[in-house]
Amino acid sequence: MKSRIIGTGSYLPEHIRTNYDLEKMVDTSHDWIVARTGIEERRIAADSQCTSDLATIAAQRALDMAGVAADDIDLIIMGTITGDYPWPATACVVQANLGANKAFAYDVSAACSGFLFALSSANDFLMSGRGKRALVIGAEIFSRAIDWTDRNTCVLFGDGAGAVLLEAQEGDSGVLSCHLHSDGKYLELLYQPGFGSRNPASIEGIEAKLPFLKMQGNEVFKVAVRSLTQVSKEALTANGYTSADVAQFIPHQANLRILEATTKRLGLTKEQSFINVHKYGNTSGATIPIALDEAYHQGLLKEGDLILSAAFGGGFTWASTLIRW
Ligand code: ACO
User: Fold this and answer.
1) pLDDT on residue 74
2) Active-site choice (19, 123, 255, 282)
3) Helices in the chain by DSSP H: which ranges?
C-alpha cells in the first residue's frame, strides 16, 4: 500500500502587490528585491478573508479534481503558522466549511516545513490503516504576521493556500518516504516573539511589534541551503536513487538564490526544478502544495515520475519527501 496523491488544488488571493508597490511603502527597489530574492510580486488576501477561507477553496479544488466527496475524507492535517486563531486548529474550521463530517482534523506547526510535516503524519496514518483518504493542506496569510515597515522582511512573503488529497492504494505509485528534522537551538534566527506564554499579549508588546516575524536573513540563508541539500540527498539515498532519476524537484519557494544554490549542490538542472517564487514570494507552509498543483496542471508531473520535495523553515525544521507520481 502507498499514499497516492489523487487530487491537488490551490488558491491565490486576487490582489497582487508588486515590488513597485513596495517601493512606495519602504526604502527598497524592484531591482534590489529581484537581485536578492528573485521575487517580483506576491498575493495579498482581502481584509474579509482569513486563512481557513483560502484553505477551504484549495481543499475543495483538490476534492473536485479527485471526484471525492467531503464525507469520504478520514483526516485533515494542515500546516500553518498564521491560522485563523491561536486555537482551535484552523483545520477544524476547514473541516466545518467543507462538511467533512467523518474526518478528524488538526494543525501542524513547523513553519515553512509545515506541509511536509503534515504530509508525513497523514502518510503514517494511512499506512497504519487509520483511514483511507487524507486531506493535507498548507495555507498562510503571512501578510498579517509581518511588519510592513521592515524592509528586511516585508519584501519576502505572500499569502496563499494549497492542498493534496491522499488515498491509500495498492501499487507502486505514492509517497516513497518522508524525512523530518528539527533543531531548536536556532529559534531566534527566525520566529514570532508574541503573543504566546513567553510574551503574553500586552500594549507594550504591540508597541515593540512582538506579533511580527523577526529574522536574521543571512544566517537563515546559510543553514537553509545546507539543510535543504542534506535532506534532499537523504531522500534519494534512502530509496536508492540519484539526482539524475528526479523528474521534478519541488522545493519550498523561499528565495531564488536559496533554490539555485541548493539545486546546484544537488546537481539538478533547471528543467528538473520547479520555480514560482517570482509570482508569489514565500507563502511559507503553502509553497509546496501550490507548486505541486501548478506543476501538475502544467503537465510536468506524469504517471511514474519521481518527484522530490524539500522544505526548510522556522524552528528550525526541515523535511523532504520522495513521491512516485
Ligand atoms: N531593500 C533594499 N535594501 C535592503 C532590503 C530591501 N528590501 N533589505 C535589506 N536591505 C539592505 C540591508 O539593510 C543591508 O544594508 P547595509 O549593508 O547598509 O546594512 C543590505 O541590504 C544587505 O543586507 P543583507 O541582509 O546582508 O542582505 P542579503 O544578501 O543577506 O539578503 C535576504 C537579504 C534577501 C533576506 C537574504 O538574507 C535571504 O533571503 N535570507 C533567507 C531568508 C528567508 O528566506 N527567510 C524565509 C523564511 S526561512 C525559509 O523560508 C527558508
Assistant:
1) 98
2) 282
3) 19-23, 30-37, 51-66, 90-98, 114-127, 151-154, 203-207, 217-238, 256-266, 277-280, 287-297
